[in-house]
């Protein structure tokens, strides 16, 4: 009798055994099934079959119903998710259901239902009602006249329901244009001839990349403005010509519009996007259209990596160094590392590009795991921007900026260019302080102070998002002698508007760009020259190509110079290099100004004198001497609890258990408090495990979870495992 393993959406590491239904000889891997579990019927996903069970066959229950004829997860994608379960120590059922579209989880859809498309008829275009029509009919006609071709989900987003759509169809005002055949976009493929001339470095790299058809992990290391996107486009062209699909990952949503525009201009194929801001109906449609092969290119953030493809031929990971690829909430994984595993399982090339490759990727290239290719020249007429450090301790400072910086802003604006001001701190001011008793308003749920947001007229915690009204007097002593300390992007915008009242200004941070549409609108304003001064946080620091920006100023990065995190200098070097790379990408030369109170700090001197790559070489040497990652493996256990004592005691018990069965060369550090001890009402501590061998550490941790599992079921504690932790 055939037994099949089924993964269930519960926190249990191993799948469960079930018999096949009566009159069924086989079920494919990756299909949804309904199974009896305890006293309920729940949804599961098939993992493996043709296995023998140690349990008595009479005790094994039968699958109640098979929901899918064809797998929702391909064999290769399923293999990746199983690998993730083992490497990241996360139950396979929870992983599968985490990446499954919501409608499939709710058991709404049996088999794959493809969204219909509708087009307006000639009658619909010229339709003038002779009698009153319903508001929904009016709305639907107005919408489809504007868009011409529309999906079901686009109607539903406007609260236009299926009855209205059917009524329009019966009246011959719209007609269905969907057919069940996969569009043969390959036969219609047209590639724009309007493309930049490649330099010798680009030509050689494209030849190398296009010579490999199987799994090959490329590390594309190129200075900012060296034409990495052109490498992506040429590699994509080769894949599209053989009818295969391409996945492009970007670290943040705000980078999608720009890269999508470049690919749309080059290729006349179906290109879609996938990210967390999409509505569930749209996510489902993108997922299905990609699975059946209708989408040629998918561009998205880390969640796009788990889309099902009909025939994936290439993965591109842009800005591979970016920490946004690491998921840190609910459970932890690194999308770049998983992308490499997926490329290996699919047996396809992967290109990881960055002007500031991560220290892990540079080491992987050194030891032969990745194959590094370098772009060392700027494309076109652009030149490397000149850098200057401004010592704020001996400069006249006006409104948080040196007089010199203000004069340079004025100079670049007079030349009709754009200016970018970078400050990685949103809000108006990070602190309101009472000048009499020196107290400040702390968040009641976090170990952090409230930030002043003057436009919204409230104080806000940037960790738990709680808000309170701006106080008129000190809650500690009753004094009205309150003032702000420090500055954020909102205050910089106010200062710039007062100095340059006639210059259009755009601010991009989480407060002004709250959704994808807002981000796209603001980015377009900058590209079209409607904005002359750009102010922003790290949302503007990476990947953007603004050819008219000739001055970039980093207003304050001093706080990052004195971090106790051993990765802090690497992150700061990447941030500085990325931000400064936004200057001088067009025909005019660029200028970078860094304001600091510590101009002689060794880090700044080394980075500006020697550049990013020499700095990383030194960092690798330091890490090796200290036996720190990437020369060792690390796994952290985080405990979170309303009680500080319980959070600590939970980790102390694990440490005591581990030390009784301690592995040779295993280092156990902690419990260590997070830099921000309390967040959203929970105290946070961590226990760090370190070993010279990643494989040995992973195996040890699997055994630890198996043997200690019963002690982890403390309902008062929220605990998370973080493999290869990168930050608090």
Overview of this protein structure:
The protein has 728 residues and is of the alpha/beta class. It folds into five domains: 3-105, 3-Layer(aba) Sandwich (GIY-YIG endonuclease), CATH 3.40.1440.60; 117-176; 200-375, P-loop containing nucleotide triphosphate hydrolases (Rossmann fold), CATH 3.40.50.300; 386-428 and 487-619, 3-Layer(aba) Sandwich (Rossmann fold); 633-723, Ribosomal protein S10 (Alpha-Beta Plaits, 2-Layer Sandwich). The protein is 31% helix and 23% strand. Strands 11-12-10-13-16-9-17 form a seven-stranded parallel β-sheet, sandwiched between helices. The protein has a six-stranded parallel β-sheet with strand order 18-30-29-21-28-27, sandwiched between helices. α5 (135-147) packs across α7, α8 (200-210) packs parallel to α9 and α17 (568-580) packs antiparallel against α19. The protein is globular, with a radius of gyration of 28 Å. 39% of the residues are buried.
Question: What structural keywords apply?
Answer:
728 residues; alpha/beta; GIY-YIG endonuclease; Rossmann fold; 5 domains; 7-stranded parallel β-sheet; 6-stranded parallel β-sheet; 21 helices; 23% strand
Short description:
With 728 residues, the protein is of the alpha/beta class. The protein contains 21 helices and 34 strands.
Number of strands: 34
Terminal CA distance reads 50 Å
Describe the main β-sheet briefly.
Answer: 7 strands, parallel
Portion of residues within helices: 25-40%
- Any idea what the CATH superfamily of the largest domain is called? P-loop containing nucleotide triphosphate hydrolases
Mean of residue pLDDT values:
88
CATH fold field value of the largest domain:
Rossmann fold
Enumerate the spans where pLDDT stays under 50 for 5 or more consecutive residues. Answer: none
Shape, please? Answer: globular
Strand line-up in the sheet with most strands: 11-12-10-13-16-9-17
Secondary-structure content class: alpha/beta
Amount of beta strand: 15-25%
Integer-rounded radius of gyration: 28 Å
**Tally of separate domains:** 5
Question: What is the CATH domain class of the largest domain?
Answer: Alpha Beta
Number of helices: 21
> Judging by the overall fold, what is the CATH architecture of the largest domain?
3-Layer(aba) Sandwich
């Amino acid at each position: 009798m055939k037994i099949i393993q089924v993964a269930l959406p519960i926190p249990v590491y191993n799948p469960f055994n079930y018999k096949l239904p009566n009159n069924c000889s086989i079920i494919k891997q990756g299909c949804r099934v309904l199974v009896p579990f305890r006293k309920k019927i729940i949804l599961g996903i098939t993992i493996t079959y043709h296995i023998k069970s140690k349990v008595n066959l009479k005790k094994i229950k039968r699958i109640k119903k098979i929901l899918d004829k064809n797998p929702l997860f391909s064999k290769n994608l399923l293999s990746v998710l199983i690998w993730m379960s083992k490497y990241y120590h996360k139950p396979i059922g929870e992983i599968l259901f985490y990446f499954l579209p919501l409608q499939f989880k709710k058991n709404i859809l049996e088999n794959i239902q493809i969204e219909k498309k509708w087009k307006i008829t000639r009658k619909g275009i010229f339709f003038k009602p002779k009698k009153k029509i319903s508001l929904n009919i009016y709305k639907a006609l107005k919408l489809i006249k504007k868009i011409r071709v529309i999906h079901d989900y686009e109607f539903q987003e406007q609260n236009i329901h299926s009855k209205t759509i059917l009524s329009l169809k019966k009246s011959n005002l719209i007609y269905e244009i969907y057919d069940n055949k996969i569009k043969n976009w390959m036969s219609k493929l047209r590639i724009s001839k309007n493309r930049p001339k490649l330099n010798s470095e680009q030509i050689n790299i494209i030849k190398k990349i296009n010579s490999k058809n199987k799994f090959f992990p490329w590390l594309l290391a190129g200075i900012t403005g060296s034409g990495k996107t052109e490498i992506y486009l040429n590699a994509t062209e080769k894949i599209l010509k053989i009818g295969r699909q391409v996945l492009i990952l970007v670290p943040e949503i705000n980078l999608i519009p720009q890269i999508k525009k470049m690919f749309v201009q080059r290729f006349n194929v179906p290109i879609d996007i996938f990210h967390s801001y999409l509505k569930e109906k749209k996510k489902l449609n993108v997922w299905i259209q990609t699975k059946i092969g209708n989408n040629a290119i998918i561009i998205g953030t880390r969640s796009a990596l788990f889309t099902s493809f009909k025939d994936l031929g290439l993965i591109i990971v842009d800005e591979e160094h970016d920490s946004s690829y690491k998921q840190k909430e609910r459970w932890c994984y690194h999308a770049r590392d998983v992308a490499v595993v997926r490329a290996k399982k699919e047996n396809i090339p992967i290109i990881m590009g960055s002007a500031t490759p991560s220290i892990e990727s540079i080491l992987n290239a050194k030891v032969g795991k990745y194959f590094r290719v370098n772009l060392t020249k700027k494309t076109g007429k652009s030149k490397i921007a000149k850098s200057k450090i401004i010592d704020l301790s001996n400069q006249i400072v006006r409104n948080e900026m040196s007089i010199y910086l203000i004069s340079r802003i004025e100079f670049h604006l007079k030349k009709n260019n754009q200016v970018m001001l970078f400050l990685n701190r949103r809000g108006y001011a990070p602190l309101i302080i009472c000048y009499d008793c020196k107290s400040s308003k702390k968040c009641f749920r976090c170990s952090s102070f409230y930030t002043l947001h003057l436009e919204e007229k409230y104080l806000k915690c940037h960790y738990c998002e709680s808000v309170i009204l701006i106080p008129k007097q000190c809650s500690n002593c009753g004094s009205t002698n309150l003032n702000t300390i420090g500055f954020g992007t909102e205050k910089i915008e106010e200062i710039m508007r007062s100095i340059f009242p006639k210059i259009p200004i755009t601010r991009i941070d989480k407060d002004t760009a709250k959704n994808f549409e807002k981000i796209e609108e603001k980015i377009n304003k900058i590209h079209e020259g409607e904005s002359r001064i750009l102010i922003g946080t790290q949302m503007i620091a990476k990947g953007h190509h603004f050819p008219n920006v000739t001055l970039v100023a980093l207003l304050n990065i001093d706080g990052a110079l004195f971090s106790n995190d051993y990765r802090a200098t690497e992150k700061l070097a990447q941030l500085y290099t990325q931000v400064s790379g936004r200057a001088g990408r067009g025909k005019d030369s660029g200028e970078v100004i860094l304001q600091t109170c510590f101009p002689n700090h060794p880090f700044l001197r080394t980075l500006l004198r020697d550049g990013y790559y020499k700095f990383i070489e030194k960092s690798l040497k330091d890490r090796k001497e200290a036996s720190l990652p990437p020369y060792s493996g690390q796994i952290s256990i985080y405990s979170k609890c309303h009680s500080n004592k319980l959070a600590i005691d939970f980790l102390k018990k694990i440490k005591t258990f581990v030390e009784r069965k301690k592995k040779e060369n295993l280092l156990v550090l902690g419990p260590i408090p997070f830099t921000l001890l309390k967040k959203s009402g929970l105290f946070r501590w961590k226990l760090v495990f370190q070993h010279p061998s990643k494989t040995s550490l992973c195996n040890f941790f699997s055994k630890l979870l198996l043997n200690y599992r019963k002690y982890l079921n403390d309902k008062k504690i929220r605990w998370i495992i973080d493999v290869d932790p990168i930050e608090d």
